[in-house]
Amino acid sequence: MGVRSLVPMRKGPDLRRRGRVIEGQMMPVIHGYVLVQMMALSEYLAGLLGVEHVIDVLGGCDRPMRLSDKEVSRFNGLARKGNFDWERPVHLVVRAGEPVLITAGPFCDRKAIVVTPSKKGRGDVVVAIDLMGGEVPVTVPLALLKKL
């Protein structure tokens, strides 16, 4: 049917149990979002809503949010290189309420406000992005952010 999907993955946090280190499991870079390549006809997009656990199409079926092939390749390439891995240290300190810019992925070049910061200098951060007329909380790796 010409529909392809992609969920960029990264290495999750290492677990420490009784002095042993258990390698982190692979997990999505951005939880809850799947990139789909298909004809952007509203009938086809509405058909995605029939798939189990699909809540909505970002931007709606009439005007879906589009990504260029170049941005998808760049985002997936960065994820494969380990740039967004949980244990990768990031030299960025953000506080709650601070404005940031998302540097890659489906929300590339969008401004966001930090809701829940990471005090460890690695891992995930919850940010609020202004989408579809309201603020949407999204969990993203700290490595995806840049201070404004």
Q: How does this structure look, described?
A:
With 148 residues, this protein is an alpha+beta fold. It is built from two helices and eleven strands, in the order ββββββααβββββ. It has a five-stranded antiparallel sheet, with no helix packed on it. The longest helix has 13 residues, at 69-81.
Please state how the strands of the largest beta sheet are arranged side by side. 10-9-8-7-11
Count of DSSP strands = 11
Q: Give the biggest sheet.
A: 5 strands, antiparallel
How many H/I helical runs? Answer: 2
In terms of per-residue confidence, which ranges show pLDDT below 50 for 5 or more consecutive residues? none
Look at the structure and give the mean pLDDT: 90
Tell me what portion of residues adopts beta-strand conformation.
Answer: 25-35%
Into which percent range does the helicity of residues fall?
10-25%
Large-scale geometry: globular
H and E string: EEEEEEHHEEEEE
- The secondary structure category is alpha+beta
User: What is Rg?
Assistant: 16 Å
Instruction: Report, as a whole number of angstroms, the end-to-end distance.
Output: 42 Å
